[in-house]
Structure formats: C-alpha cells, structure tokens
Amino acid sequence: MGRGDGGDEMWRGGAEAVLDLQPNSSISITYDTFFGAPSDLLLLELDDKLLPQILQNRVTIRGEPDEEAVLCTPAGTYALKYVGTSNSVFLIPPSGPSSNVSDPSPVKVASVIKLAPGVMELVEVAPRLDKLKELLAENPYRPEEDSMEELEEKDGLRRLRWEDLVERVQASDEELKDALKDNSAVEINGYWRIVDEKYMDMVLNMLLHNLVLNEWSLEGFEEDQVLGIMGSDGFPLKIVLHCLEVYGRRVNLNDELSGKMKMERFMEAWMDKIPAGMSAGFEMLEGEVLVENIGVETWIWAFSVSSLPSTPAERFAALFQARQKWEWKDLQPYIRDLRVPGLSSESLLLKYTRRTQPTMDAEPVFSAR
Amino acid sequence: MQIRVKCECGESSCREWAIVELQGVVEAQPAFQDRIQDLEIGVLCRSSSQEKYTFTVGYHELSGSKVAIKKPLLVLKKKKLSDSEGLLGSSSNSSKIELEVIGIIRHRILFKTRPRALISRSEPQIKEKVNKASPSVQ
What we know:
The complex is a heterodimer.
Chain A: H1 15-19, E1 25-31, E2 41-45, H2 51-55, E3 59-62, E4 70-72, E5 77-84, E6 88-92, E7 109-112, E8 114-115, E9 118-125, H3 130-138, H4 162-168, H5 173-182, E10 185-188, E11 191-194, H6 197-213, H7 223-232, H8 237-247, H9 253-257, E12 260-262, H10 263-273, E13 289-294, E14 297-302, H11 312-322, E15 325-327, H12 328-335, H13 345-352, E16 353-356, E17 365-368
Parallel strand pairs in A: 1-7
Antiparallel strand pairs in A: 3-4, 4-5, 5-9, 6-8, 10-11, 12-14, 13-14, 15-17, 16-17
Chain B: E1 2-7, E2 18-22, E3 26-27, E4 40-46, E5 52-57, E6 60-81, E7 96-111, E8 116-117, H1 124-127, E9 136-137
Parallel strand pairs in B: 1-7, 2-7
Antiparallel strand pairs in B: 3-9, 4-5, 5-6, 6-7, 6-8
C-alpha cells in the first residue's frame, strides 16, 4: 500500500478510508511501521481567511532564535502559541498516490503516524518594531558618506538590505514598509538608513536658502529645479529627495499650481485679454475669485458663486470648506443672491455663521457655527 | 531568521488527513511497549445511524462522532534545506529550515466519553482483532 512516493513519506496512510467510512462498516486503526520515528510534523490551526495566503505561499515565520516566533502574511503579524492537549490525538495521513490503483479492494487498515501533543494557534498581534528603530539608529547616514565610494564598507556596521530587515524584524512586509516610512528611513544604494538629524537640518536649511535665493515660493516649487541647484551644491539627490519627502508635500502642478496665480501675473494676463479701450477693475471680479495673502505674496484663484449650491445651508457649508474665516467684504458677494422668504440676510448670517469681532473697530469675521 | 511556509499542493488539492481523538492515553501491554509499530490500536466502527462511531480498544468501547473542525488544521513538515538547494547570496552558514504544508485536517472522529467495559468476548469488534496485543484505555 501507498509506499514509496518518494522522500520519507513511506507511511501506509488510510485517512480517506477513515473519513469516508460507510455506515455499518469498520476499519482497523494501527500504529504505522514508522510510528515514533522523528517526523518533524506540526499542526497549525488557522482561520479560513488565512488559508489562501498559506496555500499561495505568501506566509513566513519570522524571528531570531531568542524571540517568540511570529507568522507573517503580507499584511498581518500573528503570534504563534503552542496549545498542548491531554487527549490522545491520532494523526492518520492520506494513502500514498500509488495505492488503490492496483488494489481495488476497500482499505481495511488505517495507520497512525504520530500522536499530536498539541497544536500551534495564531493570535493577531501588533508588529514588533522596536528592533527596527534600534537597527536603524546603529548606523545613520552622515555627510561624510556623500563623498564615499558606493560600495565602500564601513567595518563593523550592519548594513540593512530589505532582505536583512525581514530576517530580523518581526513584522509583515506591509507593516515593515509603513514603519520605515514612519521612521523617515530611506533606501540608499540598496540599504535602508535613517539620515543623521543634524545632516537633515543642514539639507533643509540649504534647501530653504536656495528657495529664497532663487525667489521660488515655499508654497510650491518645481522639484527638478530644486534638485538641480542642490545637486550643484554637492548634495546627493537621494538625500535631497528624501528631505523633500519628509518635510514637503507633493502637489500636482496641473490642479493646484495652475489653480492659484500670483496677483501681479493674473492682472497682467487679464489686461492682455480685454479689448483695447475697455477698462477693467478688480471689483468686477466680486463673487468670481478669491484672494489670499501668503507671506508677502498675494495669490488669486477662481471661486465662482455660480458654481456653489443655492440652498443656504449647503452654500455656507461650501464657503466654510473653501475658507474657514471670512471677512464681510469677501463674504458678501457670495451670499447676496440668497433669498429666503421671511429671512433677512442678517438672520441668515445669524443662523449659519458665528460672528467674531476682536475689537469694536475691527472688521467682523464670520466662521462656521 | 525567516522560515518560509511552503505549499506545493495548491488550493484545491491539499490532501486531507484524519484525526481520531480520545480522552486519556492508550497503553500497550508491557510486552509490546517497546515495539508498538504495526500494532493494532483498535477498531473504528460506524453504526447504521449516520454520525455515530464506536472505537473498540481491547476490552473497552468508546462512543463518539465525526465532527467538523471550526478552524482547519494544517499539517506542516519541517524540512532542512541543504546548502546545495539554492542559497545563493546567503552568507549564513546555518542550514535553512522550511515548513512544507503536506496536508489539511477538517474533521476528526472524537470520542469524548469514558470507555465502557465490554464484558463478553463474543462482541463482533473483538473478533475482528488482528493482533492479540490487547491494548487498553487507561
């Protein structure tokens, strides 16, 4: 029966016959010839939802010999808990693939290969990330390395490739990636590093200097231009990009920057567009554009009253979403068309806004209720 | 270190193992204790009523049933990979371990009750005994 399907799985088996035992029939349960031989079998209890991950080979067990092992799926980390049993759990493997082919008679014997002393259970846990911090802190990237050859090894310091991290940190791939981001780590020449804090400050300082020197706005500048300047100052692009990533926010040029324009540029462009002999005044744009002072600059962007909802509640919601605080002169063009029978514009303001006036002669400011 | 959990059987064809589980311990008679291999433990019998099973061990009979396991159990086999099996780039000299999924368990035949002593030797299950080793449940 079922022997010789290669390797050391030479047991007789018989699980099918046990599981499919028909009513009014019986089967003999015996110890296998190889019962008690070291077989290195483990039972792992798991949720049906984790089963596909295992069957698709997406699961590993992580941890060093002195740590409690965890099982990691691509996204989750699970502690492995051994739960023993005092019952006798007889394990019966299936018959080898070659059995029953030449022997059509029903199997009368099923063989126990092992008494299972217990099972491993899984408990979802938080990833164990303290070690990642320690590992990263051992060897931060310092400015001296800017001029070093890429492959130059610093003796005695650990190099952390992704493969090293998954060998040493008890976290799933996704959790590990998130943690690297949270720790502001960056992959430099294939190794994961944090950048020395003082060095980061220096890069940021130089970056800000360059923005000022080149009259680029802190609110929005082009990455390529900044990288070019910083590169010519001798900073590795990888570090500059990392600095931008950590302290900056990537904006899409098409929707954010072209939406806002500097006031002077806007006025220039507007004057170009109107026919000669006609005059234009900024007050004509009431209810069409919003103006904002950012630092010393004045920016302008389209915000048309006709694009806003016409019921008072929704109108005010949209207004306060665009801007938290409104002065009366800005707000008035956006609400003067609201007409509610029996409600004056004063009572509309009372109903939907909170009015604050720091001093008696200051302009009142309206914010959301 | 990292231990890969490997499965070659694929989702549909993971082979099912069986568990026969009972309370307590089955002990062979002293003469057989050192060589229980191939010894019969008992006879598993399914009665005419659908899910009732008996397990006769020596002069004892257990009654139980086939139950589905709420969470499936995977049978994993620890495998040591020799260095020849593709450890390119790995500098560690300790042999790598891999866990291979070799089966899945979804059911067990569970005997929860205390054994009932069989008085008469003429019980059919006893006659079927191949081996006269007479293990007993303790």
